[in-house]
Amino acid sequence: MSKWKILLQYIKTKRRTFRSRTDLLAYQNRKIKSHLEYIQQNSPFYADLLKPYQKEINEHRWDELPIIDKTIMMEHFDTFNTVNIRANEAFKVAMEAEETRNFSPKIRDVSIGLSSGTSGNRGIFLISDQERAIWSGTILAKLLPSSIFRKHTIAFFLRANNNLYEAAGEGRISFHFFDLLDSLESHQKRLNDLKPSIVVGPPSMLRMIADWQKQNEVEITPQKIISVAEVLEEIDQRYIEKVFQQKLHNVYQCTEGFLAATCSHGTIHFNEDLVCIHKQYVDKEKGMFMPVITDFTRTSQPIIRYQLNDLLVEKKTACSCGSPFMAVERIDGRSDDLFYGIHTESGEKLPIFPDFLRRAVMTAHEQITEYKMVQSHLDKIIILIKGKDDQTEMEQEVKKHIWRLYDTLHLHRPQLIFQMYDETPSHIKRKRIESRLQEKP
């Protein structure tokens, strides 16, 4: 892929500014209308789906177009994409890459990836060489700590590599994939050899690197550290920032695109120059919603009114950075990891949002350094904690705070089963708040 295409996109992204929210929305309207015209001509699925919605499209009423999700996309994959790739051939290429750990093969000029399946079912994602250039130029413009013309060595810790990520390594920018299936000893050696200027990875891995740095097992001085793939918990953010003495940045990216990143003030902003976001509220009063996204830069695998099951909390006040891009307070987890309790009077099953549980544990005892909560039954929660104080004392304080939360919400107190925390980073995404309920309301 031509480095000039990447450079052109980098320059476009850097120069693109919006004086106001009104200017931004006008830009989106132009882009989305043109995008939909192309998609309807090239995707049989969307030609059929959007046929009854021409009036809404002409009037820019994007929020009235039908919503789809991963299940619908995968059911109609063969007619969904615009590059005439069949699901069975795409799965074959992706699975061979997973098994051999060679992620370079493509179908024609299209790279194939496999989503990690944390939402319950695995999916395929396609990205053409042209889209790779757009992605690479955009992400370099938004995330590099200095100019693209300066030298950068990027260490990228991921479950799987992809041509998408390799595209970022052009010219003076060298990209180094760290396979999470490799040994921790090999990671330590490569970090010490490379001395990366940028480290990107899941917070569980970044925290382990911070441990190594603290124990002098690695000696690196990155200019920027970026959290990806997992929910960034405050407990991890504080620790990593303290060890490396810098702000930890957060990127919200998934199979469906490069959705958001932190600004210089640490606020997460959606990349609304790439995607249009509508909010599907779960709790409007608390500002909690699931995003419905339309990516108007991707054509090979269209993402139009696509609902994610991530739980996000909107930022009520404007960010001091001045960006007109939509801001979020935090990414809270997934809707399929909501805990549930039984109301003491009505007997109704009611949701408990992850942040309530997170706060209950983290405010219980200041010496807690690691934790995980798993709900396997409505009346049973397994809690794993680790800390610098007496284990029994920490468990008793956590129990008090959890029961206080349930009492406040008027829910029956569950049985709490405590275990020692023994989680280690792996290729599987870590969840600190995890629901294993078989049947959910």
UniProtKB/TrEMBL annotation:
Gene3D superfamilies: N-terminal domain of ligase-like. It comes from the Bacteria. NCBIfam families: aden_form_hyp (TIGR02304). This is Adenylate cyclase. It comes from Cytobacillus gottheilii.
